[in-house]
């Protein structure tokens, strides 16, 4: 008879070297955990720059069988949110442990998540596809795509020729170490946040410091952020900073020169990364959740994720469950308005530790929403 499951929570800094090796082994044994967001070094970087990362572990017969990295208190969230584009329990394929069981007794009432893997078997599950590509060679990948992608590629190549004629020769620098390029990308992204009224996660020192440290780790690090840059002549046109473990590249922070938008520089850069994937060692390029817009042309091997809340028996858990039920029940009448509000608040709460800062950010968000609604 197997020993009882032993569940324990401790700060990430208290994990032993053996715990870390076992964590890596769990991830390697489960294809569903391919994302670099599930690598222990990612959560180590989150803890170094944001603090407060807790690790709940489950052991059986002394062997580590599950890991859940999280932050927060009564209302918990995945470690690294809102930057963690995928969130789940790190466990083997034969281990079935839900988050409620892992967090019982931790003074946690609810665990809000925004991108949890799902098999979409539950019709009530609000699952969305991810724009994920498995690439074993650029030519083979392109040949496997449908007519819609081929038309898209033809248009992209036409824009490439036009940009070379009007601006300068197309050139891509992979794994760039150029500080000016990095800073230009961050500036473009922040300007885009301001333009669209979205919450500027890069204004938070913990977030910006996390990104910078992962990029500064360099191409030899087992977990890092690779920066790829597109130039037209000597002019920087686009950049993509992505989290990678060397095999999976997760496109993370993408930006482009708005004056060059007509040439689709971001798409030109993506096509260049597909061409360079073999040389870079990338077998998967992941554009994250959602297949809207240009992403629909690239989602060749999609998976599904869902957002929601897991509640633990308590007053806080009861309140969270009530809101989640209302969000689902009202979805047919309000669309995803309640879900957007919840996700926006979770994003703000992860970056703003003070109530005053959260209130200002939410007030600004609602103001932007109403202004855009009136102008629509």
Protein topology:
Elements: E1 6-11, H1 17-29, H2 40-50, E2 54-60, E3 63-72, E4 75-78, E5 90-91, H3 99-103, E6 110-117, E7 127-134, H4 138-143, H5 147-166, E8 170-173, H6 179-196, H7 205-216, E9 224-232, E10 235-244, E11 248-256, H8 265-280, E12 284-289, E13 304-311, H9 315-329, H10 331-334, H11 337-351, H12 355-375
Parallel strand pairs: 4-6, 11-12
Antiparallel strand pairs: 1-2, 2-3, 3-4, 3-5, 6-13, 7-12, 7-13, 8-9, 9-10, 10-11
Helix pairs in contact: 2-7, 11-12
Domain BioF2-like acetyltransferase: 151-296
Organism: Algimonas porphyrae
Protein name: BioF2-like acetyltransferase domain-containing protein
Q: What this model shows, in words?
A:
The chain is α+β, with helices and mostly antiparallel strands and 376 residues long. The chain folds into two domains: 146 residues, Aminopeptidase, CATH 3.40.630; 147 residues, Aminopeptidase, CATH 3.40.630. 41% of the residues lie in helices and 24% in strands. Strands 1, 2, 3, 4, 5, 6, 7, 8, 9, 10, 11, 12 and 13 form a 13-stranded mixed sheet that branches. 38% of the residues are buried. The C terminus is likely disordered. InterPro entries: Acyl_CoA_acyltransferase (IPR016181), BioF2-like_GNAT_dom (IPR038740). This is BioF2-like acetyltransferase domain-containing protein.
Describe the structure concisely.
The chain is α+β, with helices and mostly antiparallel strands. The chain has 12 helices and 13 strands. It has 2 domains: 146 residues, Aminopeptidase; 147 residues, 3-Layer(aba) Sandwich (Aminopeptidase).
């Amino acid at each position: 008879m197997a020993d009882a499951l032993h569940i324990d929570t401790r700060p990430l800094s208290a994990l032993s070297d053996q715990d870390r090796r076992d964590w890596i082994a769990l991830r390697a044994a489960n294809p569903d955990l391919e994302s670099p967001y599930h690598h222990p070094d990612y959560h180590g970087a989150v803890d170094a720059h944001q603090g407060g990362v807790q690790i709940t572990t489950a052991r059986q017969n002394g062997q580590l069988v599950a890991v859940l990295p999280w932050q927060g208190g009564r209302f918990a969230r995945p470690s690294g949110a809102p930057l963690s584009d995928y969130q789940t329990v790190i466990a083997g394929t034969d281990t079935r442990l839900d988050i409620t069981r892992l967090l019982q007794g931790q003074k946690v009432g609810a665990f809000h998540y925004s991108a949890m893997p799902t098999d979409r078997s539950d019709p009530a599950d609000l699952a969305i596809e991810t724009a994920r590509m498995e690439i074993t060679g650029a030519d083979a990948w392109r040949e496997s795509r449908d007519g819609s992608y081929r038309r898209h590629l033809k248009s992209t190549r036409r824009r490439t020729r036009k940009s070379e004629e009007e601006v300068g020769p197309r050139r891509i620098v992979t794994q760039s170490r150029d500080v000016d390029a990095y800073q230009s990308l961050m500036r473009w992204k922040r300007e885009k946040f301001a333009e669209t009224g979205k919450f500027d996660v890069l204004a938070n020192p913990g977030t910006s410091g996390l990104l910078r440290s992962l990029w500064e780790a360099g191409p030899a690090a087992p977990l890092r952020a690779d920066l790829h840059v597109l130039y037209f002549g000597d002019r920087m046109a686009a950049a993509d900073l992505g989290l990678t473990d060397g095999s999976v590249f997760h496109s993370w922070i993408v930006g482009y020169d708005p004056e060059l938008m007509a040439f689709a520089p971001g798409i030109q850069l993506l096509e260049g990364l597909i061409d360079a994937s073999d040389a870079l060692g990338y077998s998967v390029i992941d554009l994250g959740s959602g297949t809207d817009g240009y992403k629909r042309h690239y989602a060749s091997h999609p998976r599904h994720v869902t957002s929601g809340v897991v509640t633990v028996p308590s007053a806080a858990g009861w309140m969270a469950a009530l809101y989640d039920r209302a969000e689902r029940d009202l979805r047919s009448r309000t669309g995803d308005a309640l879900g957007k509000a919840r996700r926006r608040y979770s994003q703000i709460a992860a970056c703003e530790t003070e109530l005053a800062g959260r209130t200002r950010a939410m007030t600004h968000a609602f103001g932007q929403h109403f202004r855009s609604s009136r102008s629509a």
